[in-house]
Each structure stands twice: as structure tokens, then as C-alpha cells.
Design brief:
Helix content is 31%, strand content 12%. The chain is α/β, with parallel strands linked by helices and 356 residues long. The strands form 2 sheets. It has a 7-stranded mixed sheet. The longest helix is centred in the last third of the chain and has 17 residues. It is globular and about 65 Å long. The termini are far apart.
């Protein structure tokens, strides 16, 4: 291990460094182990994020939703490949360790969401909960922001698609099951590997893979439509697990499956390469070589249509393997269309307010 690099060997964290935001007018060179506690741990700090809106809109043609809500900026799970890491740079912070240790939580998200859904011009559509950062991070046990959001969505009968790596979603089965019975909810569990040691390094604070499989089973048994997201598929590291993951998820009762080939936008590229060289130095070059083969010679291709699945022979092979495994288990045979026709705005709490 190179002790001259601050952050290497950080217990419970994904990133090994904390490069400054690209938007700062100044930079600071870190000394060895600068700002790193002697025990090798960086504590998580929560900050309030008071936003006027919580619904994020997008027009991306390769994303199956046009709106999303994330209860926080930053994610303590520490997934080294997370494509949302560069967003922390807009806060003047690092997409590295800052992203997973300095979390901006939206404590009033449910109240703000209620106001947005109550606007006369709002038209319902499937809302993705947890599209950028996980809605069931450790702070959710205490703060309950995600649960409050689900309570608002249930009140409005608004469709929701939840994406998480956290077993804590089981706590909210009492909300999700009734929504699902009305065709208003589904849950997607991200499961890029079943290897516990690889998962510990890749997603240091996420729920263990075997426990996520159990979560899929419990959700399915509760009548909640479930999907497994094999995301990301990492060349020469997790790509051999595609069939095994789909076999396991199908046995747990999932009906849908999707995948995303490893994406390395902006700062994520350097963070991931640094991680590879730390944890898997013997195959780092091979991994990046296959990434470039699937990205037309580049480390990343941001174009719509290819950014999620790649292009070329290697990407085609991944696509064919995934589709064959899905067909073998009858996955994706029927599209899951959540309902929007049940949406309604609850009456104001006071009769007098209805006059305005």
C-alpha cells in the first residue's frame, strides 16, 4: 500500500482520495494522511439541504423516467463507480471522500414534494426514488426521510419506482405493498456482484449481496413487483457473474431485470482507476482495456443510446448473454406499467384554505 497517498486503506470507504472540486479557483495539495484521523476513519457529517424543489426533471431518451427525487446529495454507501459522484463538485466539494462523508440531507423533502404535487399544473408520471443516490442510506433509519416521501406519494396515489441497495426498504413494505396492489409501486434492487469480498471493496457500506437477495424475496412475497439491476457490469471483474446473478434473482421472485455497463464520467474515471490499482493491480490494465473496447477506444462515451450499454464486440456479447439469461427465466416478458390515472390531490386540511 502506498502510504504517501492520503486516504488509501480507509476502512469502510470506497474512494481512496479527495481531489478538490474542479470548479474551485484554487487547489490544495494534501500532505501524507492529511486530514485523516490516525485510526484511519473519516466520520460521516450530515448537513441540511433546504431546497425549494425536490423533483428533478430530465429529458434523456435512454432513461425510463422523466422525474426523480433523491433524499440526499452524496451517498454514504461509497460505491466507487457511482456516476453521481461528480455532482459533489458543484457544491465545491470532492467527488472522492467528500461525496461519501459529507452528506446533504433534505429533511423537509416530503413537505416540499407535497407542495409540488399539489400544484394545479402538475401531471403525474412514474417518479424514480433514488435515481442518483440511495434512498436507504444509514441516516434513513433515524431521519425517515424516504418513508415520509412514500407516505406523501401514497396519499396522492402517485406511482413510484424505488431503486436501492438497502435491506431497510423492507421496513416500508407496509406502504409499498398497498401501493403495489393498486399498480402504483415497484422496487429495483441493484446487485452488481454476489461475491461478498468484492462487494465489500466495491460498495463498502451497502447491504451484503446475500441480504439483498433475501430482500428481493421478501418484497416479491409481499406482492411488490421487483427487478434486479445488474449495475454496473465491470469488465473482467464482475462480467462472469451475469448468469449467476440472474439465476439467483429469478429464484427470489423477480419479474424484471436490467443492466448497465460500467460508466466512468468525469472524476469517476480517476477514482475508479485508483481503486483498481489499490485492490486489483494485477488486472487493472485488462479491465480498462475492455472498457475502452466497449467505448470505441475511450474511457467513457456520454452519447445517448450507447452510454448505458456500450458498443462493439465486447458490449454485444454482454447484451446477448444478458438477454439469453433473461429469456431462460422468463424475465421482462411483460412490461410493468405503473398507473397514473389514480392520482388525486387531497383536500386542504382546512375548509377555509379551499377558498384560496
Amino acid at each position: 500500500m502506498d502510504k504517501d497517498k492520503p486516504g488509501l486503506g480507509m476502512r469502510g470507504r470506497g474512494a481512496a482520495s479527495n481531489a478538490p472540486s474542479r470548479f474551485l479557483e484554487w487547489t490544495r495539495e494534501a500532505e501524507p494522511n492529511d486530514d485523516i484521523p490516525p485510526e484511519g476513519r473519516v466520520p460521516t457529517a450530515l448537513f441540511d439541504d433546504r431546497a425549494k424543489t425536490v423533483i428533478s426533471w430530465n429529458q434523456s431518451p435512454d432513461i425510463p423516467f422523466d422525474r426523480s427525487v433523491n433524499p440526499a446529495k452524496g451517498c454514504e454507501l461509497g460505491c466507487i463507480y457511482c456516476y453521481a459522484r461528480p455532482l459533489h463538485a458543484y457544491l465545491g466539494l470532492s467527488p472522492g471522500l467528500d461525496f461519501e462523508t459529507r452528506i446533504f440531507v433534505k429533511r423537509d423533502a416530503a413537505a416540499v414534494l407535497r407542495g409540488e404535487l399539489s400544484r394545479p399544473g402538475y401531471r403525474p408520471g412514474v417518479l424514480a426514488l433514488g435515481a442518483a443516490t440511495d434512498p436507504y442510506q444509514p441516516f434513513e433509519r433515524e431521519l425517515g426521510i424516504t418513508r415520509q416521501i412514500l407516505e406523501v406519494l401514497a396519499e396522492f396515489k402517485h406511482p413510484v419506482s424505488v431503486t436501492t441497495k438497502g435491506a431497510l426498504v423492507e421496513r416500508d413494505i407496509d406502504l409499498l405493498a398497498p401501493l403495489a396492489a393498486q399498480g402504483l409501486a415497484q422496487v429495483n434492487i441493484s446487485l452488481p456482484t454476489l461475491d461478498p469480498e468484492l462487494a465489500r471493496r466495491l460498495e463498502p457500506r451497502a447491504t451484503a449481496p446475500h441480504r439483498r437477495v433475501e430482500t428481493l424475496r421478501r418484497l416479491a412475497e409481499a406482492g411488490i413487483p421487483t427487478a434486479v439491476l445488474v449495475a454496473p457490469i465491470i469488465p473482467a471483474l464482475t462480467d462472469h457473474e451475469i448468469e449467476h446473478i440472474l439465476d439467483t434473482a429469478a429464484a427470489a421472485g423477480v419479474s424484471q431485470a436490467a443492466y448497465v455497463l460500467l460508466r466512468l464520467p468525469r472524476e469517476v474515471r480517476d477514482l475508479f482507476v485508483e481503486w483498481l490499482e489499490q485492490h486489483y493491480p494485477d488486472r487493472a490494465n485488462h479491465v480498462m482495456s475492455l472498457v475502452r473496447q466497449a467505448r470505441e477506444g475511450r474511457d467513457y462515451d456520454a452519447r445517448f443510446g450507447s452510454r448505458m450499454s456500450g458498443a462493439g464486440n465486447y458490449a454485444d456479447l454482454i447484451r446477448q448473454r444478458f438477454q439469453l439469461a433473461c429469456r431462460r427465466h422468463g424475465l421482462n416478458e411483460r412490461a410493468l406499467d405503473l398507473r397514473t390515472d389514480l392520482f388525486h390531490r387531497p383536500a386542504p386540511p382546512s375548509p377555509q384554505l379551499a377558498l384560496f
